[in-house]
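Lecture notes, part 5. Sequence design as translation. It can be helpful to think of inverse folding as translation between two languages: the language of shapes and the language of residues. The source text, in structure tokens, appears below.
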């Protein structure tokens, strides 16, 4: 449908296609015939087969861009809908912005351009200034897709932030957003849980800078304990390395809380201490146990003991992702088993036994984990009976990560040959806290 020299809305002359996606997006370089200025037109094809979320995100992008006024964000110009008759009944929505001549940082990476420490500091400061503007709006605006392809190094040698297709106004409910979007590798864990905050954009910035420094995409960077490992890949001053480690922390509480504080830390001549013995940049205790948590954690000399309570009803409710309907299902199944046992005793009793044992074990199994200097041990406990004892040397631990099922979270230990699930039905805060505690003990031991 769209070709070079085609005119849209009697004023926009298409000159060159800049990009397209399988999701129905096209981006064109065009000329505004009224002003003779170059513009960028972003197009979205919308049909009955497309999910409405795509259109909502596109409309939100246009709405928010219209309210933004920053010299490093391409200016909003126009928004319109194209006639159905132009493309066999398909509706096209169009967003027009200023065109920024230059190259994206992704294009420069693909051209094998090197970014030295001085250039990285300059890029970081310019992006942080843009994020300060966005995050200090009322309500804050979160970009949620900061990455090299969305950063343009203009002909004026300034950095511009583009593509607000994943943009979100932070809701009044602290720490939550409505739509889960982002690019894997650059987006932090909490963003994929629908809990993006200003520090989520900072994480994406940190990963982007590491990509620029190393030339290695996030998917190919080495990770240990869910944390990107880059020290051995760069030659930087210690303060910048420590700054990058803080901004890319897995736990959002451990990162800089906002862009202004991150910029102040980057501009400071003082070295940043990342040790956990000091208060985090968020001015919050990193190892503060969540309120009402029933997890028992005790540190002895050269030993860490953890007791995780049973998952309770929350565990099997989540199997069906249906709240109390999970309990109703089991009640109906148990009742049917009783009915069957009247006519077919053997099968009925087997079903009853299976349901009963499964529910009891799921609800009543506790986990005890003990770490020593060289190994860890896991024991399952039902009432007073211990079973399922497992042990493994610490030297083959690869990662400690969080697994989510519905609204419950669990901590897993991945080794070179096995993954150990620590059970329970934890909250997000409990899981993050527990991961931090285990990791820190292993580092210190």
């Amino acid at each position: 449908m769209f070709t070079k020299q085609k005119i849209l809305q009697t004023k926009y002359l298409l000159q060159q296609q800049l990009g397209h996606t399988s999701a129905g997006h096209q981006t064109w370089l065009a000329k505004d015939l009224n002003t003779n200025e170059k513009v960028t037109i972003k197009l979205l094809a919308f049909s009955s087969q497309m999910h409405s979320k795509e259109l909502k995100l596109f409309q939100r992008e246009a709405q928010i861009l219209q309210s933004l006024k920053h010299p490093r964000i391409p200016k909003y110009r126009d928004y319109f809908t194209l006639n159905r008759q132009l493309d066999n009944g398909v509706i096209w929505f169009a967003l027009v912005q200023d065109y920024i001549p230059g190259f994206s940082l992704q294009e420069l990476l693909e051209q094998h351009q090197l970014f030295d420490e001085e250039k990285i500091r300059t890029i970081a400061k310019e992006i942080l200034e843009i994020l300060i503007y966005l995050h200090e709006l009322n309500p804050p605006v979160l970009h949620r897709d900061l990455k090299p392809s969305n950063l343009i190094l203009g002909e004026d040698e300034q950095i511009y932030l583009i593509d607000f297709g994943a943009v979100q106004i932070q809701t009044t409910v602290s720490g939550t957003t409505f739509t889960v979007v982002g690019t894997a590798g650059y987006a932090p864990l909490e963003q994929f849980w629908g809990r993006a905050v200003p520090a989520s954009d900072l994480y994406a910035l940190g990963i982007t800078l590491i990509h620029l420094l190393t030339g290695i995409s996030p998917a190919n960077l080495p990770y240990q304990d869910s944390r990107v490992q880059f020290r051995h890949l760069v030659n930087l001053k210690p303060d910048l390395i420590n700054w990058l480690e803080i901004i890319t922390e897995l736990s959002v509480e451990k990162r800089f809380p906002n862009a202004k504080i991150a910029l102040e830390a980057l501009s400071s001549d003082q070295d940043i201490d990342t040790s956990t013995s000091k208060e985090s940049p968020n001015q919050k205790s990193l190892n503060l146990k969540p309120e009402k948590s029933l997890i028992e954690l005790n540190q002895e000399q050269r030993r860490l003991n953890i007791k995780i309570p049973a998952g309770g009803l929350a565990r099997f409710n989540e199997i069906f992702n249906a709240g109390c309907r999970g309990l109703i299902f089991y009640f109906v199944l148990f009742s049917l088993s009783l009915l069957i046992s009247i006519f077919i005793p053997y099968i009925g009793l087997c079903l009853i036994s299976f349901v009963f044992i499964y529910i009891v074990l799921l609800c009543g199994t506790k986990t005890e984990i003990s770490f020593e200097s060289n190994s860890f041990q896991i024991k399952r406990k039902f009432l007073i009976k211990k079973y399922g004892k497992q042990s493994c040397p610490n030297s083959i631990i690869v990662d400690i990560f969080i697994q989510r099922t519905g609204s419950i979270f669990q901590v897993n230990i991945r080794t070179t040959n096995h993954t150990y699930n620590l059970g329970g039905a934890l909250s997000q805060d409990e899981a993050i806290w527990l991961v931090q505690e285990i990791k820190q003990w292993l580092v210190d031991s």
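The translated text above is only one of many valid answers, since several sequences can fold into similar shapes. Residues 287-445 form one domain.
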